[in-house]
Structures are given as C-alpha cells and as structure tokens.
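Subgroup meeting minutes
Present: P.N., E.W., G.H.
Scribe: E.W.

1. P.N. recapped why we're keeping a running log of single-chain structure predictions: easier to compare across weeks, and new members can see raw inputs and outputs side by side.
2. G.H. added today's entry (315 aa).
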Amino acid sequence: MAADATSAATSGAGSPFSPAASPADRRRAFRDGLASGRIQRFVGAMNPLTARLIEDIGFEGVYVSGAVVAADMALPDIGLTTLTEVAHRGRQVARVTGLPVLIDADTGFGEPMSAARTVVEMEDAGIAGLHLEDQVNPKRCGHLDGKVVVPADEMVRRIGAAAAARRDPDFVICARTDARGVEGLDSAIDRARAYADAGADLIFTEALADESEFEAFREAVDVPLLANMTEFGKSELIDAGTLERIGYEAVIYPVTTLRVAMGAVEEALRDLAADGTQATWLDRMQHRSRLYELNGYADFNSFDSTLFTYGASND
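Output recorded in log:
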C-alpha cells in the first residue's frame, strides 16, 4: 500500500544527520498521499529509532501520539505535557525519517492564539501536519468516559487560528472531534463539517464504535477522513484494507509500538529477576547488528573518512 509520493519523498542521499527529503517534500508527500486513493498508514513511534523502523518496514507515515509522549514521561494522558515537550519529541522524530510526521497537538495548548503558535512551532520542527481536538483543556484520552467538548464555535476559532498561522500551505491541519461519545454521531458529523469550513484539511472523529459508524461518517462528510485504530478502546479494530474500501484516507496506530515494547520489557524483566540471566531472551531481542543498521553506524563512518575514532565492530 506504500504511496508513490511517499516513496519519492524518501529517496535520495542525504547526510546521516537528516533525511534527504526536506520538510516541504514530506508535507507535499502527505498531501499527495491523502489524494492518492490509497490509505495512508501512520504508525505511532514511541521514539526516533522506532520511526526509522516504521520507515524501513514500508509504512506511509509516522505518528507522534500525545498519549505516548505522556506515558514516556510516566504521566497520564490528561493534558499535562507542554507545547515545548511535545514539539521537542516531534523534532527528534522528524529529524530521523524521510516520511511525513503527523503529531498530536491536543487542544492546541491553550486558547486559539496558542493553537496558532503551536502550528508555527510544529512547522519549525519539520512536522508535516498536526491534529487539534475539541475537548476542553485539560483533556483526557479519547477512549475514556467523562470527556467534555467545547462549544463548536470555540473549536471553529481554534481551527481558524491554526489555519491562519501556517506558512507552508502544504502543512496539514487535522481537526479531531470527540463529540461522538458526548453528543452523539449526528453532532460529530455537524462539527466535522464546520471544522472543514473553518480550514481543516483532514477530519479525525474519535471513538466511533464499529464499521457501520465509520461508513456513516464517510457518507455524511465530504472531506478526507482519518481513523484511529488504537487497542483496548471503544472502536472495533478494522483492517486497513477495509478502511480504504470504506473511503478513509488515513489511519493511525498511535500506541501499538509502545504497548508491544512495554509488554515484552515487563516479561523480560520478570524472567531476569527470577532467573538471574537474560540468556533465554537472546533470540527475541533485536540483534546489535540490526540496531546499528537502524542508527546508521556505517553512514556516520563514511560521512567523514577522517573520523575513525569509533567502530561498530568494537562495541
């Protein structure tokens, strides 16, 4: 399913410090992918190295989840992270991949003026697009009960400010609505239309229940749509091919890599504590040689032939 536009954006030779594709290239690739007729799969990167792996496997984009940024700091996903912290993680991820990066910007970290500043900060970080949501601040995970959404006209101002602040017209502004679980599906559809009119390029409706609701939303909203396939939430897990058939342009897997990794880490730590050795885990670990492929040891060695002060074979 890899989009031709994305493949083109990631080709070419760059320095080991940055991808060959410029931020502008990656934003155009994101736009082209949304218009390609093929669903764009954005997988959540729990860290920059994971972003490299996502690109290497052949996905179309990388996602930076606010829930993952918070969890990485051992915080709950209730709006405790700051614009500075989230933008810093986004910059770290965007620096290492030639894929477009979509980032979770929560509610814009404040009033509409703060949402405008958020767009500028994310553009400067090399991000290809962000999504803003219509929850009150502080927000909570979209798949928990007890959410509260702001009035639709307040979110319209939030989106309008964000759209007015962007300097690169290819930077994608995605509007997320959490109204499905608060006000019902019809309200979420009405909000999505209003947000598109305010300048949103992509609509993300959170916590739809099942395939029929995804289909109903597609039939009612005439703008590009993003689906969230997070685990253990309120939405049925639908495969990418089915979402593409329904007509969705993008899908995110926000916390998958973190959950897989933390599950394995916890199991390995328990075995290490019980056995006093990690020997039984060697065939389940990523080998050192694979790690060196992903972090570009050879590229850094060849970047400047006079700098042979280290070597992969000696570590």
